[in-house]
Structures are given as C-alpha cells and as structure tokens.
Amino acid sequence: MKKKFLKYFIMCTAIIFFMSSVGYASSYDVPVWSSQNNKLNENVAYDDNAPTSTNKIDNNAQINSNEAYDDNAPNTLAENNINTNSVTVNTEPVATSETLDSSKAVTNNPLNLTCGGAILIEQNTGRVIYDYNMHEKLRPASVTKVMTILLIMEALDSGRISLTDKVPCSENASNMGGSQIWLDTSEELTVDEMLKAICVVSANDCTVAMTEYLEGSEQAFVEKMNQRAKELGMNDTTFKNCHGIDEDGHVTSAYDIAIMSRELLKNHPQITNYTTIYMDSLRGGKSELVNTNKLVRNYEGCTGLKTGSTSVALFNLSASATRNGLSLIAVIMKGETSAIRFGEARQLLDYGFNNYQYKELGKANDIVGTVDIEKGLERNVNAVLSNDAGVVIKKSNDTNITQNIEIFNNISAPVTKGQKVGELTFTLDGNQIEKVDLVASDDVPKYSFLTMTERVFKSWFTLLREY
To answer: pTM of this prediction?
Structure first.
C-alpha cells in the first residue's frame, strides 16, 4: 500500500509542476451542433395578407354596458423539432433592446375599426399583429392607471411596500371626484384593498392615496411615471396626472398603452388576481365593486386590463386575453361609445385568436451545446438559453423555422454563470424572427498553481479513502 501511495504522490506532484509550466487548458475546436432534419411545419405570422371578410358590429346591442365615465365620469432544445444549422463566429456579444415588432402588422384597417387608434399585439414576443393609427396621440382617460399600477407592482416586487401595508387617505385624495369609493381621511385601507379598488372600479381617490404613499405627492409620482415611460420607449406619452382626468397635454397612444400593458402583464402576472375580478366588495361587504371592464365577464380567456372614459377622451380600453398559450393585448382609443370600445376590442382579439398561434421555440436554461474554455479548471461549459423563446405563427401557411447557433471563440476563464457565450437565431424564409442569447450554465474559475494544487490534494484524499 505504501508503495502505491508513493507512486501516486510522485505522479500527482509531477502533474502540478507540468500544469504550472505549460498551462492546464488550451484552445480546442469549438463544437458544432449537429444538424437535424426534423421540420417545424407551422403557420407563420409574417404575412401581409389582410383578411377577406369581417363581421359587422352592432354598436347598439352587442355589449350591454352600464359604465359611466370612469375617471371623471434543463431540457435540450433538440426536443422542439426545429431544423438546426450551426456556425461558429469570433465576435463580441451585441446588446439588443426589446421593443414592439411592427414590421409585418396589418395596417390598412381591414376590420373597419371606427375608433381613433388601435393596436393588437402578442404579449410574449411583443409582435404587432394589427395597427390602426397606433401612434396617434390621444387622451387615455383612466387607462393612464396602467402605468400607476405598474409602478405599484414594481414597488411591491422590490420590497418597498407590502400588500398588508396600511395606506392613509389625504384631503387631496378624498376630494378627487369622478370614479371613486368615497375614501375618508379618517380611514386606512391596505395596499391589497387599494389595488382591488383601482383595478376593478378605477377609483381615483385610491389611486391618489397610493401615489402619495409611495412618493410623498402625486406630482412626484407623475415624474416617476414619465421617467418609466421613457425607459420603456413610450415616445408618444406625456403624463400630467396619475388617474387620467382630462388635462391639457396628458396624452399617449395605442402603441404606448400596449407597451406598458405588456410590461405589467408579462413581468407582474399576479396583477390578474385583481384585473379578472368581476364582482367583489370592500369594507366588510359594505362597498360593492363591479368591474368596469365588461369583457371580464363575457369574453373567454379575458385577463383584464383597464378601461377609461371621459367626455373629451371618449371611450378607451386595454383588453387582454389568453387562449391555448396565445396571449393578446388589444388597445382601443377614442371609441364613440362604450359598446364600440368593447366591440372593436373583441374584434381585434377574435382576429388574433382565429388567425395566429404562439409557438414555443425553447425554454430558459435549455442546453443548446457546449463551449470550450481556455485556461479554466473545467475544459468546457454548457451553453443554455438565457430566456424563453417563441414566435407568433400564422395558421394559414405551413413553413419551416430554422435555427442558427453562434458560439463565440477564444473564451477564457474565468467565466461567470449567465455570461453571454453566443447567440441562437431563428429564421423563417431567410428573415430573422427571433434571437436569444446563449449564456454559460455555470461558473468556470481560472486555473492557477494554487487551484491546481488544491485539486491535486483533493485527488490524494480521494485515493487515501480508497486504500
């Protein structure tokens, strides 16, 4: 036994000096992801053909709305059966920003919408499916509160506030008027109760009370609203207040409403616990709440989101729904009547669900391949998807989606988990439809004399246990 141990001791010591002089890792051939012949036969959304027929809306009878003006009145990607071509490149990661993709939207209004502006988008990808005057700057009325709710949800997620916090009512909040639950300065409601009142009945008094609780004053909160709008790329938007009561210069567009609605639903899906409520109550059942969004009750899969109307802004709506994995957001601005608002939102959603589907292309952390690491304690690391990948597919055409893997060369340790190591691009008929970063699945420390010595000593102890 002593002779065997001495033999392993000499061998391991020699390895340490050898590694320290010539290096543990060197360049390896970058692995090429094997080509697959499986095809994804789906219908592509990138089709400019407009629908050949539409259904007329009965503006007087389709939707019975009693709403008053509500604001003053580890799987492998190969399992997805996608054609795969692989190429390696020696390049640096390129930063990309997420915006709504309107390159192939229907823009000539074949649905004969009569509102002032409208848009239909797919929630996961941000793909614009239908566009009608989507950048027209109009008064949003209480749809403004989508941004207010978004900032409240971000404050909750960051831990600044909690649902059980008690929120006081100032004199300013109690005197808001318009849609309200008649808050009194002597009472306090929890953040949970405030959110319910804001989402279900568009309560202006609760909205102002929440903004004062978060930022000290409504004006300070409005500054945060405009700052967040700028960060999201809402270039058609200027907020003057947090509730949407008509004020000169308080404007946005259907496009911008879609952006903030998507941000709210995609990153804070728990908001649907409030926006899907049709009837509820507060104050121990003394205050009854009925949702101003009638689609919550009579449209299959409706998940929200927010109504808004004044005598100047007319009737607005951000409507969201999900069916069979496809999530859509339809925005209607300046509808002549409440029935038109709901009817045209229904038309947009029906058009989306009847003609499109969402195809999942991969999930976050799916393994795509491996990346060789120079001078690392490990020779390679898995390349995984940084986030979920999917595409909107049009139902009427069968096509093939091809994926192209790009893995960066000359990656040296140390490598940190989540570090970008490549890109995965999906194309359809030569057009890029989706790009996802490939990132390292684990940390890979850089080797050194000390780290190699530590590894050898660990090997010795393993050998000692075996003998």
So the answer is: 0.74
